[in-house]
Amino acid sequence: MIKTDLSKWDYPAPPRSYELERAPYEQIREIQDYGLKRLVNYCWEHSPFYRKTWEKAGVHPGDIRGIEDIFKIPIVSKEELQQDLKQNPPFGTFQGDMSACRIQSSTGTTGMPKPFFQTRRDWDIIGNLWARRLNAQGITPADRVQMSLSYSLFIPGFTSTEGVMKLGATVIPVGSGAATSTERQVILAKDWGTTCLISTPTFALYFADVAEKMGYDLKRDFQIKRLIHTGEALPKALRMKIEERWQVPAYDNLGSVESGGAPTYECELRNGLHVNEDAFYFEIVDPKTGKNVPDGQEGLLVMTTLYKEGAPMIRYSIGDFTKIISEPCSCGRTIRRIASVSSKIDDMLKISGVAIYPTSAETVVRKYKEFGSEYARLLTKLPIKML
Ligand SMILES: [Zn+2]
Fold it and tell me: Contact 227/259 with Cβ under 8 angstroms?
């Protein structure tokens, strides 16, 4: 039983999070209900973007008694945030009025980078949520974790670093290959006895290429036992390629700058991504109707950041296609799981009316051992007679 005054719920890191991760669902729901009501009341008073959106939809905070009423709140799209930023530069009115300790942003692959405020409390909590990820993936205070994501406006470099420290492990903050050359990263990993690498999945392959080119053997010369990935999708074929190469488990962690950090993580079983459900509420909706689909059915992910003070997201459609796995996980955690993201709506290309996702190319490319670790997709429209 989680005995606490909900107003003091602090989204703890392990070991204090053990109980929450294994609590009966009704108890998690109580925390979610409280978080949603707090967020809705706050945004009504302090976030003109949400108030305007809800007034237009005829929704008042009094209508939201808890998660059971969340469907009354309109879904927010990336385009609507973009519009708010355009009309109210430079930060928009969705950030709220809490003082930010830092601003992180999207990478801007689909337009200008979108800024997201983080308060001091947000930042602390994100570190705790990352620590839960690392703990579930077998990291202990004895580990030396080399962090090879970039330290920039891109959020997971910093947040994963916080998580390693919160867990009591040691972080080696090398940053991306642009900050510390990959050759140097290879030498540091070897000499300093790195036991875990946090990176994008493709960097783990590139690291392996460089290490082998330098004459090292991945098994003999390194103590790396785990590869922790985020920042890119980890389709099955890519994971198999990485694990075959390194002979250690590679873990998938779906995140996004809009979420703040660490909404989901795989456990040791690597069978779906557990959701940090005290801090987030995830729904899957039909992309056409916006209505919730039953558990197990694929649809668009809609996210609510229950814990957030800066730039809260309420029913935000993040553009990922996935499904909820409601069956309990044999690891003992009761917090629910989602399936690995099958595709992102932003990456979809409509070719002659057929939706094509990068993950479909990935599955084909990774089958061939002759290919290196990187590939590019080139889209051309040839006249029919040339095909
Ligand atoms: Zn599990």
Answer: no
- CA dist 150 and 178 (Å) reads 8
- pLDDT tens string 100-113: 999 999 866 556 78
Phi and psi at residue 227, in whole multiples of 5°? -120, 125
Instruction: Assess contact for 81 and 47: CB atoms under 8 A.
Output: no
Q: Which residues contact 366 (CB under 8 A, 6 or more apart)?
A: 235, 237, 238, 240, 241
Look-up of token digits 């995830």: 282
Single-letter amino acid, residue 168: G
- DSSP per-residue letters across 280-338: EEEEEE-TTT--B--TTS-EEEEEEETT-SSS--SSEEEEEEE-EE-SPPTTS--S-EE
> Where does 117-217 have alpha helices with state H?
120-136, 156-167, 182-191, 201-213
CA of 181 to the centre of ligand 1 (A): 35
Cβ-proximal residues to 187 (8 Å cutoff; 6+ apart), any chain: none
pLDDT, tens only, 213-267: 999 999 999 999 999 999 998 999 999 999 999 999 999 999 999 999 899 999 9
In the chain, the domains with their CATH numbers are: 6-123+255-347 (3.40.50.12780), 138-248+348-386 (3.40.50.12780)
Residue 134 Cα to ligand 1 middle (Å)? 13
The phi, psi pair for 354, rounded to 5°, reads: -105, 130
pTM as predicted = 0.90
What's the gap in Å between 184 CA and the centre of ligand 1? 35
Q: For strands 226-229 and 250-252, give the pairing.
A: parallel
Calculate how far, in angstroms, residue 271's C-alpha sits from the geometric centre of ligand 1: 7
Contacts of residue 371, defined as CB under 8 A and 6 or more positions apart, other chains included, come to 365
Tell me, in angstroms, the distance from the centre of ligand 1 to residue 16's CA.
17
Residue 42 structure tokens: 């706050």
CA 20 / ligand 1 centre spacing (Å): 13
Do the beta carbons of residue 161 and residue 147 sit within 8 Å? yes
Question: What's the mean pLDDT when you consider all of the chain?
Answer: 92
Q: What residues does the ion ligand 1 have nearby, CB within 5 Å?
A: 267, 329, 331, 333
Tokens of 13: 């890191």
CA 268–ligand 1 middle distance (angstroms): 7
Using the mean position of ligand 1's atoms as its centre, give its distance from the Cα of residue 24 in Å.
15
